[in-house]
Structure formats: C-alpha cells, structure tokens
Amino acid sequence: MNTIKVKHCSTCEMPFNCGDTLEGEKCWCNNFPPIFNPLDIEDCLCSSCFSKACSNKIDEFVATVTPETAIGNKASLLPETTNIIEGIDYYFEDGNYVFKAWFHLKRGYCCKSDCAHCPY
C-alpha cells in the first residue's frame, strides 16, 4: 500500500501529491536535474512551479556560459540520464525536437551538427 503525501506548494500554495512514499518510492521531482540548493526554497514545489523554477535556474546558468567555459561545465558533471524533459532539455518546433543549450552542456561536447542552441 502506497501512502501518498499531500503537500502544499511553497510558491503557489496549491495542494499536490508528493511522489515520495513511506515505502521508499521517490518523487517525480527526482527526474529533474539536481540543480537546487535546498536552502533556495522553503519546501516542495508543485510540478508546474518546479518546472518553471528549474527552467529559470538553468537559463540563469546557461547565460553565464561562453564557448570557452562550456567544456567541463557543471552540467556535464551531473550523473548521466536517458531522461530528457520537455522545456528543460528540448522544445518542439514544427513537429521537430529542438535541443536547448542545457541538453548540449550535459552531453559535454559539440556534435558538429550546427545545432541551433549549441553553446560550444
């Protein structure tokens, strides 16, 4: 039996179901990159606010990256994952995936395909 925790978002105050259970299952937020310092937020965020906050943090970081600092950046040091997240790693344009700079930075190198958001 899974015991779902109902929490209130520390940003919008809406109730939401936390994926952490008393049985040890992990929350959906663990699918996102580990970019938050726990002191940055008061408590958990709902999926909408979490996605926005995560995207904002990533955009702030990406804005500081230059081609000279892209190699060996902190995004490339994150644990590898096959999970890509719409709005964080990519968006759709005319039915095609367009990978964002964060996706490229996590990969750690330029693929030489003239990607629209290549930070290298």
Description of the molecule:
- The structure is a single chain.
- The chain has helices at residues 47-63, 67-70, 101-107, and strands spanning 4-8, 15-21, 90-93, 96-99.
- The protein folds into 2 domains: 1-63, no CATH class; 65-120, no CATH class.
- The mean pLDDT is 84.
- The chain has 3 helices and 4 strands.
- By secondary structure, the chain is α+β, with helices and mostly antiparallel strands.
- It is elongated.
- A two-stranded antiparallel ribbon has the order 1-2. Strands 3-4 form a two-stranded antiparallel ribbon.
- InterPro entries: DUF5522.
- It comes from Flavobacterium laiguense.
- It holds the Pfam family DUF5522.
- This is Cysteine-rich CWC family protein.
Largest sheet: spatial strand order? 1-2
Biggest pleated sheet: 2 strands, antiparallel
Shape: elongated
Count of DSSP-assigned helices: 3
What distance lies between the first and last C-alpha atoms, to the nearest angstrom? 48 Å
Unreliable runs: none
Secondary structure: number of strands: 4
Q: What's the gyration radius in Å?
A: 16 Å
The helix content is 10-25%
Q: Find the structural class using helix and strand composition.
A: alpha+beta
Q: Compute the average pLDDT.
A: 84
InterPro entries: DUF5522
Protein name: Cysteine-rich CWC family protein
Organism: Flavobacterium laiguense
Pfam family, one: DUF5522
